[in-house]
Predict the 3D structure of the following.
Amino acid sequence: MTLAPTPASYVESLFSLEGKLAVVTGASRGIGLAIVESLASAGADIIAVSAGMPPGDGPARTAVESLGRAFTPMSADLSDRSRVAELAAELATRPVDILVNNAGMIRRTPASEHSDEDFDHVLGVNLRATFTLSREIGRGMLERRSGKIVNTASMLSFQGGINVPGYTASKSAVAGLTKALANEWADRGVNVNAVAPGYVATANTHDLRLDAERSDAILARIPAARWAEPSDIAGAVLFLCSRAADYVHGAVLPVDGGWLAR
């Protein structure tokens, strides 16, 4: 028996974000910029948030507007609790369909030397801001009984890492938060999931990639035998933001080249 091919229009509709409004944090470069490009290419209008987001021209605006989508830049330091509260309140007034909590940061020092300030700073950006934005924007989604939230977890949501105790704690908590929100919101029309990137060629991994011994050890464990590109992560995020993932709730999706399978 030969199955009829699936019509292209059906496949396209599964991944179409036409008419959707998406908020992406950490959107000025790296994974965040790739996510912006991916969602806009699927039809979404974009609110791009970053501490260094230029009000005028920049890569994110150029990418979005070249695709014929609306672009709104917002500048916010997500380590500043009061600024996060202001940002969340402002975004909560808009009909946001998609929230991608991508912004994150890392501080690399041995645990015995890891300061309280570094620990708090990392958790503030990676965890507290993720929760605050999800809570405030999520209320509107719950009222409309529709919405997609995608958080950025990490391989260190599953493992301990080396010299990154604050980062590991924050990303382990992001995975737990994702599941907790999914448990409460899944039957109210809101999907909450996360991607867990492996080693990606971005600014956060610049020092690792310069360390030949460490880089070689990392590549030796990755079955795909390469560092991820930001676009690899963006594709998974697009899936989780689309109708194709309507029955996916509380997942933490590794995008790691097979790292966890090794």
Q: What stands out?
A: The first helix runs from residue 8 to 15. The mean pLDDT is 94. The domain at 17-254 is CATH 3.40.50.720 (Rossmann fold).
